[in-house]
Design a protein that fits this description.
The chain is α/β, with parallel strands linked by helices. It has two domains: 2-257 and 484-514, Aldehyde Dehydrogenase, Chain A, domain 1, CATH 3.40.605.10; 261-472, 3-Layer(aba) Sandwich (Aldehyde Dehydrogenase, Chain A, domain 2), CATH 3.40.309.10. It has helices at residues 41-58, 61-77, 79-90, 94-118, 160-174, 188-200, 234-241, 244-248, 274-288, 308-320, 340-354, 415-423, 438-448, 507-514; strands at residues 2-4, 6-8, 11-13, 20-23, 30-34, 124-131, 139-146, 151-154, 178-181, 208-210, 227-231, 252-256, 261-265, 298-303, 358-361, 383-386, 405-410, 431-434, 455-458, 475-476, 487-488, 498-505. The strands form six sheets. The chain has a seven-stranded mixed beta sheet with strand order 15-16-17-14-13-18-19, with helices on both faces. A five-stranded parallel beta sheet has the order 10-9-8-11-12, with helices on both faces. Strands 1-5-4 form a three-stranded mixed beta sheet, with no helix packed on it. The longest helix has 25 residues, at 94-118. The N and C termini lie far apart (57 Å). The mean pLDDT is 97. Bound molecules: NADP nicotinamide-adenine-dinucleotide phosphate. NADP nicotinamide-adenine-dinucleotide phosphate binds at residues 154-159, 181, 183-185, 215, 231-233, 236, 240, 256-259, 295, 400, 402, 429, 483.
Length: 516
């Protein structure tokens, strides 16, 4: 069986015990094993700080951008291999695998181009300067310089490629070395991806290290110049961000966590209109893509009285046409959940939701998958529930079921009530609104904008990729329950890895130093 090793301090570390076995979630066959036992995390951090950081800071933004573009190109050459690993270990269909693998490559390429645009600089200007007294003898200009520590990235099981790439691209372009850790259960794709990048020789020594398995004392060793970015469940985030050394040294911590995202159908959208069709196609895809294992998946669907019947009927018809099973079978449109634990948690979650909802579509139980051995595989079919008490804070608003499961919620058609219902989840990564009525949308933004990190607007003629897609140019992250973090968003994504410095002095010196 393949042994997944960690790449630390310039060597591949092979553990001898405490292995976690990775499986194919469609067949439950073992595919690899992983452990980090015996790894020297102090040595890894030292290598990043002594070698990786200085080498990166020697390069300009433009040079780092060139490297990111070359890394994206190298990964494209291995696309087929990475998609196959994603299917084997994450149970992804070709489309779902592409969402992860090509999405990751896309993030690297976009940040590569941003680096080229930022050009021949080693620090950035932040806005225009300000005169502080009556003359130019005292002037202020903000600049941003790379932090001189290490960026430690911990990722969730559902996006082994994109999760690595979107975080790495930002830290690397900013000039910080990275230690990345994928979730152990689905580390196969991320391990190979990092192996390809390391073997390419494109990166300066110490710029990228990989932990497969437990992180030991790694996080306890972080200090003032380091950055910690985490994606995963709210419970793990709470435990990790509360570490004493992180709090004591004011380490920048970014958290991307759970989110009960909502899709809202406004009352102006007529059945048969393009916006109605977009709503149905988007929501059905957001429930079933990656078997609902997306932090940005739609979990709550708000329907106004006049449209509830037609929208429910159209959604059920779409979901009923989704073939669930082993992605190795060509007829399959939706794969399994990624692990036995995830299956157990999703079934527990459905049972919890069913205490206050009715089943509209699906079984609420594990099913056998097409093309998979009977009784094997972590399959849950598309599942639609309906709540008759949408304004009460039932589990629908706080129990994230990480699978192809969503709940229909009736509302009175007003933007105010829609926003109040969406807010019951206490912060989302994305909320989608389908409407052609700009007054309604503006009212929703005013009432509910602060409860989400991204507002996706579907209308007649819009060509969105669905609310679940995170574009590198647009912010990813949301308030409250969603973690309170912010990643990507073009140049904004570099912010955690840069220290803003207010340069003050005579205007001419300040501007010469800053390169204004
Ligand atoms: P998880 O159980 O919280 O694990 C996330 C990561 O944390 C894994 O790499 C895990 O490693 C690591 N981890 C767990 N305990 C740790 C500890 N004590 N010290 C260091 N690392 C530790 O979450 P998951 O099951 O992988 O992912 C599903 C969750 O992630 C869902 O709730 C989903 O909403 C959320 N998610 C959010 C986003 C977003 O961008 N907001 C994106 C994707 C997923 P091991 O695997 O080795 O335990």
């Amino acid at each position: 069986m393949k042994n997944l090793t960690s790449y630390l301090a310039g060597r591949w570390h092979t553990a001898e015990r405490d292995f976690h076995v990775l499986v194919d979630p469609s067949t439950e066959e073992p595919v690899a094993q992983a452990s980090s036992t015996g790894a020297d995390f102090a040595g890894a951090l030292e290598w990043a700080r002594r070698s990786g950081g200085p080498a990166l800071r020697e390069l300009t933004f433009g040079q780092r951008g060139e490297i990111l573009k070359a890394v994206a190109k190298k990964l494209r050459e291995h696309r087929g291999e990475l998609l196959a690993l994603s299917r084997t270990n994450n149970g992804t269909t070709a489309g779902d695998g592409s969402f992860d693998v090509d999405g990751g490559g896309g993030a690297l390429a976009v940040y590569g181009n941003l680096g080229l645009a930022l050009g021949d600089r080693r620090f950035l200007l932040d806005g225009a300067g300000d005169q502080l007294v009556k003359t130019e003898a005292f002037w202020s200009q903000h600049v941003e310089v790379p932090k001189q520590g290490v960026a430690v990235h911990i990722n969730a099981f559902n996006f082994p490629a994109w999760g690595f790439a979107e975080k790495f691209a930002c830290a690397f372009l900013a000039g910080m070395p990275v230690v990345t850790k994928p979730a152990t259960a689905t580390a196969l794709t991320a391990h190979r991806l990092v192996e390809i990048v390391i073997e390419s020789g494109l990166l300066p020594a110490g710029a990228l290290q990989l932990v497969v398995g437990a992180t030991g004392d790694l996080l306890d060793r972080l200090g003032a110049q380091d950055v910690f970015a985490f994606t995963g469940s709210a419970a793990t985030a709470l435990a990790l961000r509360a570490k004493r050394n992180l709090l004591a040294a004011s380490v920048h911590v970014n958290v991307e966590a759970d989110s009960l995202n909502a899709a809202v159908l406004a009352p102006d959208v007529a059945p048969g209109s393009p916006a109605f069709a977009l709503f149905v196609a988007d929501v059905a895809r957001e429930v079933t893509q990656k078997a609902g294992q997306k932090c940005t998946a739609v979990r709550r669907i708000l329907l106004p009285p006049a449209l509830a019947g037609a929208a429910t009927e159209a959604l059920v018809a779409r979901l009923a046409g989704t073939t669930t099973g082993n992605p190795a079978d060509e007829s399959v449109r939706m794969g399994p959940l990624a692990t036995a634990d995830q299956l157990r948690d999703a079934l527990d979650g459905i049972a919890e939701l069913l205490a206050t909802t009715d089943l509209v579509h699906g079984t609420g139980r594990r099913i056998d998958g097409v093309g998979a051995p009977a009784g094997k595989g972590y399959f849950v079919g598309p599942t639609l529930l309906r709540s008759e008490t949408p304004r009460e804070r039932t589990p629908v608003h706080y129990r994230e079921v990480f699978g192809p499961v969503a709940t229909l919620l009736p509302f009175d058609g007003s933007a105010a009530q829609a926003a109040a219902i969406v807010a019951l989840a206490e912060g989302t990564l994305v909320t989608s609104v389908y409407s052609n009525d700009d007054t309604w949308v503006r009212a929703f933004l005013a009432a509910g904008g602060s409860t989400t990190g991204r507002l996706y607007l579907g209308s007649d003629g819009s060509e969105g990729a669905g609310s679940g897609a995170c574009f590198p140019q647009s912010q990813h992250g949301g308030p409250g329950r969603a973690g309170g973090g912010a990643e990507l968003g073009g140049r904004r994504g570099l912010a955690p890895y840069l220290q803003r410095v207010a340069l003050q002095g005579h205007r001419s010196l300040v501007e010469r130093v800053a390169g204004v």
